[in-house]
Amino acid sequence: MSACEIPTGKAPHGCAILDVKQCVVAGLITVGAVGVSITSMPGTIGILGAGLAILMLVIAVTDWHSFIIPDALSAAGLCLGVIYAAVQEPAGMLLAVAVAIVRGAALALVFLAIRNAYGRIRRRDLPGLRAPGSTGRSCR
Asked: Which domain holds residue 11?
């Protein structure tokens, strides 16, 4: 059952769920993003971009309602990025994928450093990188 089929209100575990208006807005954004991606870059690259647009919308809505980004969605984004790198440079596929992975890892380390520095400055433990349910609410 999709989020749009659930009645308006609160889920039993306390997480907000989408109402019809939010589903219509999310649907319009999805159709627009997919259309722009496919028309601006026809072919495989456009389809991968459309898939990424859909995935990012799902991640945004999930995070908005539950303050959690499921690992499966993060893994799907990683896979799309690796496939995109491979498709973009078919002649040098292995090098393109390796460069994409190194860039992603470097960016992840930058965000981890910012998170850790902020935690030290504020002298508080921050959410993230913990088991679901250890702090805050978990909607899994």
From this structure: 3-68
CA distance 10 to 133: 18
Residues whose CB falls within 8 Å of the CB of residue 3, separated by 6 or more in sequence, listed in order: 17, 18, 23, 61
pTM: 0.67
The partner residues of 16 in beta bridges, in order of sequence, read 10
HSE (CB half, 13 Å, CA atoms) of 118?
10
Tens digit of pLDDT for each residue in 72-121? 999 999 999 899 999 988 889 999 999 999 999 999 999 889 888 888 88
Domain membership of residue 52 (yes or no) is yes
Q: What is the DSSP letter of 43?
A: T
Asked if residue 61 belongs to a domain, the reply is: yes
Q: Are 33 and 57 spatial neighbours (Cβ–Cβ below 8 Å)?
A: yes
d(CA 100, CA 66): 29
Query: Does 44 reside within a domain?
Result: yes
Give the chain's domain count: 1
- The answer to whether the CB of 50 falls within 8 A of the CB of 33 is yes
